[in-house]
């Protein structure tokens, strides 16, 4: 039977085999020479190896046709799948190309915007302010509007008067008060450097009042001066002062303290050293005073121990210093700042920011509030109010716009707020009015939309298309949401319509194209053609010189056209020298290198940007990283941006920059006329200009060296090209030597060029290999993260692999999933095998020797039986077979033949068995060798891979370090070179402007002198006629002068006479005053004498009474002394007590009588006062009533007169209204319109329409009962309740809620409509819910509605049906009571919040009383 093996698909029987020896699938090594019969990878997507032990029967012929059809259909399916994959790949490539183009364009536009914000003048923007070009950010020049600049011509006398006032003696008190702070004369001198005279006078006037209040003690710090003694408050005060810009702080401290060292620092003002220096000045100079410390010190050798009064005086000094410093800086900044209507202060002109961006203080008022807080000042509540009373006012407030950073880092994120877009429009259109409409800071989406809307409005007015290439309209939402394609389309349209006209002039381009092509371009329509078309014609004309065809801007991405452009213009500029013209005429037509030979786009683009940057400010439109990554430009629009700036530098600004260009070249190619003019200008210039030129010559050496190096390289290339093209004529030997030398030079140069290109190619390949490895690693990591992110690897299905866009990513994900499934399967099989082996080992541990012995015995018996059967039973079978054959009658020959066949078969079986044994032995040995070799190769590959990865990591780290150093050095060199070039360019520009001004002045003077000479003849001719006319005028003038003199004398006499009369009257008044004073003094003296007399009488009365009392007491004691007998002692004591009792009783009677007299007088006086007040109150009430009656009578009378006058007009108006009412359609009446609007209220979707309808209903129901009844009949209550239930917490919905509740309040004014509202289901619950829900005006409206409802018994019953809401009302009353008590205990709480809480509490209490009392 014939057998052949078959290929079985991944069956379960094969997967259940022992696969513990299989490792993780890896890529095959190219160095391995061993070929396994099995596949190198064991994955689920491939077939299992063919098994030598599995066989299948021969295929049946009936299935051949079906298999052929299946193979054909599978081939067609594979082709279809391949076609679909090809289409998918092409779509992905197109999408990737588009994304790369958009990314490159976004980077180019980002560079353009940053260049526009940084150097608007280089972009052609008009940065002057009202015709003034000197809009430099500085602190020593005051800002003057155009109107004020015109007024300065006639305000010279006023400034002289102000200077005289300041220099006068009117500030003696201020001078003496500020002597402990600073010297007044030095202060005045330093202030005039940075402030106008008017501002200086204003500051002195204000400080005079302030120091007066400080010296008199009405404005002072606390006695212990906590701003010095308290360390925390001192640090806080230092931080407040350091919130000023270091530039302004230096100026302020210089004005107050003096010291040129504060202004002599040439370092960065924001450096740490400068800031620490300012902190030390504030700490040692501002908060201390050495003179006071010496004057109040107990012991000069002991610091910090002072006599009483030191800290009080020091507080006054610090108070004067801070008030003077803040006022000076506020006035200086106010007069030097640029108003918003002219631009952004500190950017477009004006002066630097007064406060730093990082500080929290943004106004001078905030400085005073924080520095002089209630913890520092003595008895001050609102310090600014006190200062305003004395005239001290500070007004500067630093806006958020001047602090805004316009630098663009992420284009689509940074443009979402619309501020940078508005700034670009303002620069390109020179329209500062857009700054007034911006909202800064734009921290919400609503503000972003507003700013984007303003920007698009200005773009629409400027004629910029607000749509993309496909015609899709660009709105503010697209920019605010960061739509990439629409944002780039908007910026491209801005560049084309606003930036191109500033950089390119059509006439100049047309003239340039005419010069390039060598004939007049009359057919070139420069007026109707667009700027982009003119730009394309210009580059086409240049490329035609080099036999390079340019169809559109997309043909520029390879860099050939850029090379032609550089070769054409730069070679033409360099060829300008003082050598023989003929040689240069022949060489001017030859190119350095043909465009077809040089195809390195990266080199062309980089060279174009670097060379052009030497001529002036030039943006790096194409990034070097993008050029290296894509080996050229990706977006043709980015190349257009580069071309525009190249055109601006090479053609449009050529006349401006020609002098600087040739100065850097060091050429002397000026013609004779220009040389003579230059000589005349130099001779006419002053010594200062000569000194300035010498300084500029020293500063331009570095730039000249760099430019000469590039020039020499270009000249060498042109020389070599010229030598290779033009062969000089001469003798044969000279030609041969020249040819050999030229060949040697060419070979040497060619070798250098080849080496440089080969090195660059090697570096590019290394970089590309590195980028490829990085991309591969990134792809693998992304695939792993994607699989891990989507789901667990064990649950990941192969159907989800098709969801990934990239083929490489799909393949890696497939590989990771298969590997993970293989590892899981291998781990599970190993686990099963290990468990089975352990189980078997545990089972056979006990009886293992017996089982082995039994197995050996059984095997011996079986083998013996098999041998015996073969040897014993074999001959028996043969004999039996021969007997049978004889019985059958077979011949001996047949029997021998059978015997031989059997012998041959046995030999065959023996040989086959022997062969099988040898084959099995060989297979086992080969298999073991293959396993050992495979494990060795895997270990070798793993070691090699580890070494390669480690070396690659080391190389990558070294490359990163080297690249960072290279980038840092290149950036530093570029920055230094750019700074040098900018300084040279600015110096040259200033010198050029000065020469132009000087020429203009000379020309004006010559024209003026010529005008004088020409008018002299006409003056002489008209002299006689003028003399005749002048004489009568002179006589009339003399007569008028005489009359005026007489009139003046008369006025003087009258003035003296009137003065005499006034003096006489004054003397009379004085004498009268003296007499009155004498009489008053006499009256005062009489009163004083009367008082003294009465006092003397009272004293005499008191003394006489005392003498009388003493006399009476003395008589009683004398009488007691004369009685010497003891028997009369008792009688004498009784007599003495009786006499004293009489005296005391009389005294008490006198006192009682006197108290009654005084009480009567007091009662009489009190009654008189009460009667006078009552009579006054009655009189005032009577007068008030009479006045009110008079006003009412007057109003009625005036109303009667007005009605009497307008009765005719009213009748006419009434007739016209009746006539118009007859013609009005019923559907247009207000009630019908209200009903129709009410029916549309629930179906309306626009919130503005709903709000308008609710406002109309509120207004109509407030003034008309009929409207209320009609609306209630139409079901307005239910509709309004539904509308109230559907509103949200937004601001428009709250307005709708307020008007709906107000309409219900208008309906509840009428009792019958109130009952309808009560009967409406759910109305009470909704209104109670809104009462609990609202805290503003809606709360009070709902409270009024509930009060009207509770005034009815039926309404009270309806309200009591909702106990839960009533309980919440009780809780609301308790909460409001608690809040009101807390607000009363909080003295710093706002009055508005307290009043709102109390008003809500009153409303809730009244409503609760109505509900509970019924």
Automatic annotation (TrEMBL):
GO molecular function, a single term: calmodulin binding
Domain of life: Eukaryota
Claim: Magnesium is one of the keywords in the record: no
Chain intervals for the UniProt region annotation (Disordered): 23-72
A GO CC term assigned to this protein in UniProt: cytoplasm
Bias (Low complexity): 48-72
Pfam families: CH, IQ
Per-repeat ranges for ARM: 1275-1322
Signal peptide (from-to): none
Stored SUPFAM superfamilies: ARM repeat, Calponin-homology domain, CH-domain, P-loop containing nucleoside triphosphate hydrolases
SMART domains xrefs: IQ (SM00015)
Subcellular localization: Cytoplasm
Alphabetical list of InterPro entries matching this protein: ARM-like, ARM-type_fold, Armadillo, ASPM, CH_dom, CH_dom_sf, IQ_motif_EF-hand-BS, P-loop_NTPase
Keywords: Calmodulin-binding, Cytoplasm, Repeat
Keyword set includes Repeat: yes
Domain (Calponin-homology (CH)) ranges: 362-499
Protein name as it appears in the record: Abnormal spindle-like microcephaly-associated protein homolog isoform X2
């Amino acid at each position: 039977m014939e057998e052949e093996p078959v290929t079985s698909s991944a069956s379960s029987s094969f997967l259940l085999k022992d696969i513990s020896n299989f490792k993780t699938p890896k890529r095959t090594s190219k160095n391995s020479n061993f070929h396994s019969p099995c596949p190198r990878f064991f994955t689920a997507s491939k077939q299992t190896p063919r098994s030598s032990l599995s066989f299948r029967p021969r295929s049946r012929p009936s299935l051949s046709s079906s298999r052929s059809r299946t193979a054909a259909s599978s081939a067609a399916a594979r082709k279809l799948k391949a076609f679909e994959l090809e289409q998918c790949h092409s779509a992905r490539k197109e999408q990737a190309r588009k994304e790369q183009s958009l990314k490159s364009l976004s980077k180019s536009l980002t560079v353009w915007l940053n260049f526009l914000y940084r150097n608007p003048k280089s972009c052609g923007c008009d940065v002057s302010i009202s015709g003034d070009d000197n809009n430099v950010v500085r602190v020593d020049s005051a800002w003057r509007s155009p109107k004020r600049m015109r007024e300065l011509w006639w305000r010279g006398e006023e400034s002289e008067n102000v200077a005289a006032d300041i220099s006068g003696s009117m500030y003696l008190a201020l001078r003496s008060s500020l002597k402990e702070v600073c010297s007044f004369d030095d202060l005045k001198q330093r202030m005039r450097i940075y402030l106008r005279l008017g501002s200086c006078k204003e500051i002195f006037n204000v400080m005079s009042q302030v120091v007066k209040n400080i010296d008199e003690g009405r404005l002072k710090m606390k006695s212990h001066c906590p701003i010095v003694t308290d360390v925390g408050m001192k640090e806080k005060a230092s931080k407040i002062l350091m919130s000023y810009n270091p530039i302004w702080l230096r100026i302020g401290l210089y004005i107050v303290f003096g010291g040129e060292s504060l202004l002599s620092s040439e370092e960065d003002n924001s450096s740490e050293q400068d800031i620490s220096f300012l902190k030390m000045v504030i700490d040692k100079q501002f908060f201390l005073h050495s003179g006071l410390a010496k004057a109040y010190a107990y012991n000069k050798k002991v610091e910090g121990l002072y006599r009483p009064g030191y800290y009080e005086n020091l507080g006054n000094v610090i108070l004067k210093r801070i008030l003077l410093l803040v006022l000076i800086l506020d006035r200086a900044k106010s007069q030097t700042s640029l108003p918003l209507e002219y631009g952004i202060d500190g950017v477009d002109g004006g002066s630097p920011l007064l406060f730093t961006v990082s500080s929290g203080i943004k106004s001078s008022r905030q400085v005073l509030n924080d520095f002089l807080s209630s913890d520092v000042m003595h008895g001050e509540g609102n310090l600014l109010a006190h200062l305003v009373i004395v005239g001290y006012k500070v007004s500067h407030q630093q806006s958020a716009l001047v602090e805004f950073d316009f630098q663009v880092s992420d284009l689509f994120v940074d443009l979402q707020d619309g501020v940078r877009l508005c700034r670009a429009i303002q620069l390109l259109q020179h329209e500062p009015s857009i700054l007034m409409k911006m909202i800064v800071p734009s921290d919400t989406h609503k503000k972003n939309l507003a700013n984007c809307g303003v920007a698009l409005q200005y773009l629409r007015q400027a004629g910029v298309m607000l749509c993309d290439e496909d015609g899709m309209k660009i709105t503010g939402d697209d920019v605010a949401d960061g739509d990439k394609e629409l944002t780039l389309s908007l910026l491209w349209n801005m560049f084309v319509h606003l930036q191109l006209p500033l950089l390119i002039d059509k006439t100049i381009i047309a003239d340039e194209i005419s010069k390039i092509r060598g004939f007049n371009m009359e057919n070139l329509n420069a007026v109707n053609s667009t700027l982009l078309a003119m730009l394309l014609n210009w580059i086409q004309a240049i490329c035609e010189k080099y036999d390079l065809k340019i169809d559109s801007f997309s043909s520029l991405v390879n860099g050939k056209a850029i090379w032609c452009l550089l070769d054409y213009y730069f070679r033409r500029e360099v060829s300008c020298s003082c050598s023989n013209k003929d040689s240069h005429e022949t060489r001017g037509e030859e190119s350095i290198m043909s465009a077809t030979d040089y195809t390195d786009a990266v080199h062309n683009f980089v060279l174009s940007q670097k060379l052009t940057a030497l001529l002036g400010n030039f943006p790096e439109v194409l990034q070097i990283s993008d050029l290296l990554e894509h080996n050229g430009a990706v977006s043709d629009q980015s190349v257009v941006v580069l071309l525009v700036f190249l055109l601006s530098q090479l053609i449009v600004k050529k006349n401006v920059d020609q002098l600087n260009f040739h100065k850097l070249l060091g050429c002397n190619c000026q013609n004779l006329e220009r040389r003579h003019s230059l000589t005349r200008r130099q001779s006419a210039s002053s010594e200062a200009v000569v000194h300035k030129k010498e300084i500029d010559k020293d500063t331009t050496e570095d730039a000249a060296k760099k430019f000469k190096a590039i020039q020499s390289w270009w000249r060498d290339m042109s020389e070599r090209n010229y030598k290779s093209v033009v062969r000089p004529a001469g003798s044969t030997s000279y030609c041969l030597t020249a040819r050999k030398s030229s060949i040697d030079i060419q070979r040497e140069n060619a070798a250098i060029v080849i080496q440089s290109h080969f090195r660059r190619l090697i570096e590019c390949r290394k970089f590309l290999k590195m980028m490829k490895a990085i991309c591969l690693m990134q792809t693998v990591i992304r695939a792993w993260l994607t699989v891990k992110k989507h789901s667990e690897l064990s649950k990941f299905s192969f159907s989800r692999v098709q969801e990934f866009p990239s083929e490489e990513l799909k393949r890696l994900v497939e590989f990771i999933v298969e590997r993970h499934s293989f590892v899981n399967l291998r781990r599970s099989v190993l686990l099963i095998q290990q468990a089975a082996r352990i189980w078997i080992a545990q089972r056979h541990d006990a009886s293992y020797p017996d089982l082995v012995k039994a197995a050996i015995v059984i095997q011996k018996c079986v083998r013996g039986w098999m041998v015996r059967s073969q040897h014993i039973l074999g001959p028996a079978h043969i004999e039996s077979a021969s007997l049978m054959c004889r019985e059958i009658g077979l011949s001996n020959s047949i029997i021998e033949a059978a015997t031989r066949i059997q012998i041959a078969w046995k030999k065959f079986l023996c040989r086959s068995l022997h062969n099988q044994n040898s084959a099995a032995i060989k297979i086992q040995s080969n298999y073991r060798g293959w396993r050992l070799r495979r494990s060795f190769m895997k270990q070798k590959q793993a070691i090699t891979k580890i070494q390669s990865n480690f070396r690659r990591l080391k190389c990558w780290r070294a490359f990163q370090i080297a690249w960072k150093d290279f980038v840092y050095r290149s950036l530093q060199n570029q920055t230094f070179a750019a700074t040098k070039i900018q300084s040279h360019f600015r110096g040259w520009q200033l010198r050029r402007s000065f020469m132009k001004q000087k020429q203009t002045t000379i020309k004006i003077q010559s024209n003026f002198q010529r005008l004088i000479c020409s008018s002299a003849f006409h003056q002489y001719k008209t002299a006689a006629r003028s003399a005749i006319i002048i004489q009568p005028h002179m006589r009339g003038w003399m007569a008028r002068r005489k009359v005026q003199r007489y009139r003046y004398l008369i006025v003087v006499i009258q003035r003296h006479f009137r003065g005499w009369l006034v003096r006489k009257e004054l003397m009379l008044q004085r004498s009268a005053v003296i007499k009155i004073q004498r009489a008053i003094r006499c009256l005062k003296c009489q009163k004083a004498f009367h008082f003294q007399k009465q006092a003397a009488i009272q004293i005499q009365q008191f003394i006489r009474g005392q003498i009388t009392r003493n006399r009476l007491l003395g008589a009683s004691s004398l009488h007691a002394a004369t009685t010497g007998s003891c028997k009369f002692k008792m009688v004498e004591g009784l007599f003495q007590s009786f006499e004293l009792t009489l005296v005391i009783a009389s005294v008490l009677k006198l006192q009682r009588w006197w108290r009654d007299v005084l009480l009567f007088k007091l009662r009489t006086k009190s009654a008189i006062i009460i009667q006078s007040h009552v009579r006054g109150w009655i009189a005032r009430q009577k007068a008030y009533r009479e006045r009110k009656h008079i006003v009412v009578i007057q109003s009625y009378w005036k109303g009667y007169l007005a009605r009497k006058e307008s009765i005719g007009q009213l009748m006419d108006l009434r007739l016209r209204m009746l006539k118009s009412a007859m013609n009005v359609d019923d559907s247009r009446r207000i009630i019908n319109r209200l009903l129709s609007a009410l029916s549309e209220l629930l179906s309306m979707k626009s919130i503005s329409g709903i709000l308008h309808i609710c406002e109309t209903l509120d207004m109509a129901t407030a003034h008309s009962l009929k409207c209320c009844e009609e609306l209630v009949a139409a079901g307005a209550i239910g509709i309004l309740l539904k509308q109230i239930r559907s509103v949200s917490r937004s601001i428009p919905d709250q307005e709708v809620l307020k008007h709906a509740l107000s309409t219900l309040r208008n309906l509840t004014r009428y009792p019958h409509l109130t009952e309808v509202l009560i009967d409406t289901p759910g109305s009470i619950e909704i209104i109670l819910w809104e009462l609990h829900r609202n805290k503003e005006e809606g709360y009070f409206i709902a409270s009024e509605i509930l009060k009207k409802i509770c005034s009815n018994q039926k309404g009270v019953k309806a309200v009591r049906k909702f106990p839960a809401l009533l309980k919440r009302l009780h809780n609301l009353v308790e909460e409001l009571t608690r809040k009101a008590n807390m607000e009363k205990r909080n003295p710093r709480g706002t009055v508005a919040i307290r009043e709102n809480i109390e008003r809500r509490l009153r409303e809730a209490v009244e409503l609760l009383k109505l509900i509970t009392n019924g």
